[in-house]
Amino acid sequence: METSQDIRFEPIAVMRSPFEEKFAVPRQSGLVPAATGEVVFLPPFDDSAMLQGLRGFSHIWLTFVFDRCVGQGWRAKVRPPRLGGNREVGVWASRSPFRPNFLGLSAVRLIEVVSGPPPRLRVSGVDLLDGTPILDIKPYLPYADAIADAVGGFAPAAPVSPLPVTFSARAEATLAQIDDGASLRSLISGVLALDPRPAYRRGAEPDRVYGVRLAGRNVRWVVGEAGLQVLDLDPIDPD
Amino acid sequence: METSQDIRFEPIAVMRSPFEEKFAVPRQSGLVPAATGEVVFLPPFDDSAMLQGLRGFSHIWLTFVFDRCVGQGWRAKVRPPRLGGNREVGVWASRSPFRPNFLGLSAVRLIEVVSGPPPRLRVSGVDLLDGTPILDIKPYLPYADAIADAVGGFAPAAPVSPLPVTFSARAEATLAQIDDGASLRSLISGVLALDPRPAYRRGAEPDRVYGVRLAGRNVRWVVGEAGLQVLDLDPIDPD
After folding, report:
1. Quick check: B90 and A141 CB within 8 A?
2. Whole-complex ipTM
């Protein structure tokens, strides 16, 4: 197929999510139910008529662009984190973002259809970075999409066992001052329980402090034998 | 998002399938297991290293372009065949091909990885037209993609009940002369059992002869009270 047959696509919506950097984004959608976000439609697709009937579906597919990876190019082989980061597989056998065309696919739970303007979809189980351009939205059709006898290759049938997550006195004090502290606690617990550390760091450097920008906060934590402790979660811009 | 941020995509593969026209293509993937096809990789993506590890997965996602619909433009509202073709819903609540960006998504069973050259994937449960450009291939991950509690909106939990399909003496004689007549019979039976007639024609014109190009043949049939009968399946180009 010739280059002249390349296809141009236009974002129909943009993702608003608590994930401001790749580190700590869940590896797949649905793993962190507390990770909520909004799909905000862009002109000329900001027409609520296009959403009629969507409320009846519990889940939707988002087809999106891994826009933060486009500049880095794609790779023929990748090292999936689920394999400990030290075994290579072909990119088509992975969900790596460093793939030709940089297309992503996530099934998220549809919480609410907001008429707007602009029309928005409140969703949960998000694994998209804030600002991700979305190209398509489809209803999840259980009879076609939920394949009961599918076998998952090298990826385990269930996600890694979650880490126990506790909060320091300082982190608790911050949560107590926040209007929706319970939601933020659920988000942080859900995200960090999946242990976002690179596999090669696990077991090494027990006192290392990790940090990530999450929901407008600089979340810092350590991992010890008793589990993971959130040290603090100061606002990124504390003026 | 500005038009200057439009994204260009390049087909990574082309679909080879028995479906040569839209009429009679199954409404979703997986509905007709006998519908087999091949995903043929295109340069510079015809590198079998990119497929390493894929054999362990039973199913894969194909993200593709509804290229035969692009010229007709997208619609804000559509009339899904599953609603009898007389109720409108928003395009985002449907899997209609007449959607912004014309992106399709199908989960197909992976039968065989052929090293090539060019590398190819033999798949079944296909619902793509022959020649469809494919933009992405991902492994189907049961733990993330098979959502057990998903609810399907207006689309019924199971496909419509299949029509009983029989073959006329003439059709049987043709099948008997074909090397792989059993496969062709399964394909035709599986496709026509889903009753590709438009909903508004069902119950009307009982003697109407329908025809479709399928697997290089002009398949013709009628639907009566006892079910569907295949009249003949002559080669399209019988030289």
Report:
1. no
2. 0.92
